[in-house]
Amino acid sequence: MDEKGSLxxxxxxxxxxxxxxxxxxxxxxxxxTQSLGSDSPLRxxxxxxxxxxxxxxxxxxxxxxxxxxxxxDPLEFRxxxxxxERIRDVLQAACDRFNWKDxxxxxxxxxxxxxxxxxxxxxxxxxxxxxxxxxxxxxxKLEHVCETFxxxxxxxxxxxLAQVQGCIIMGLGGALFxxxxxxxxxxLTDRFSRxxxxxxxxxxxxxxxxxxxxxIPSVGAGETPIIAIAPALSNAIFDATGVRLRSMPLQTAxxxxx
Length: 258
Prior knowledge:
- The chain has helices at about 50-70, 75-80, 85-100, 100-105, 155-175, 230-240, 250-255; strands at about 10-15, 30-35, 110-120, 125-135, 140-150, 180-185, 185, 205-210.
- By secondary structure, the protein is α/β, with parallel strands linked by helices.
- The strands form three sheets. A four-stranded mixed beta sheet has the order 3-4-5-8, sandwiched between helices. A two-stranded parallel ribbon has the order 1-2. A two-stranded antiparallel sheet has the order 6-7.
- A hairpin with a 2-residue loop joins strand 3 (about 110-120) and strand 4.
- The longest helix has 21 residues, at about 155-175.
């Protein structure tokens, strides 16, 4: 990043999980991205959106770090580097519905707001969240989620809404709680009762807005809506606490920082 706060070079390497959504959507003159395989000691399987969830998490959390370093609002920093109108539209729509500027200006102690955006498989997503964080016990309470999603022409709006809702709730689990624990080569998470997933009480009000683009062919919508929720959460936690979390689950990462 230069002295004016403009990104001039970007290097991104993914080891093991894959190349889905690895290319940055931001306008940067010098870019190098690569996905490298590895010989994992554990059996692996696919996750919803494949590696796009991991790649977008890394990119969008780092974009917030750069915005903070440039002393620029995270929304304005992204818009300054986004030439893709579809991504700009979903991000701006989510922030407008969320009332980003007013929420950020009027939030109280322990309250944070965060945003993220991304694209994968021809569709675009933007998300804003608000959290309350209690540093004394590491509790993260998600108060509100606003997400805008666009996948071209909408054919079945009810089914599309259900897909976005499902992606957000599934994404909350991976972002906040879901974790396999190991000790001396043995898996401790050996039954479902020890594997924390989202419950009804964990799901906040969801404000979902679907952008219908009748001028664009329809593409799949079952995966891309998941990729924005985790980075938006991490960025909101930083806004609330000043602690930057770069790994998931965020609940565990925050407790380690306490």
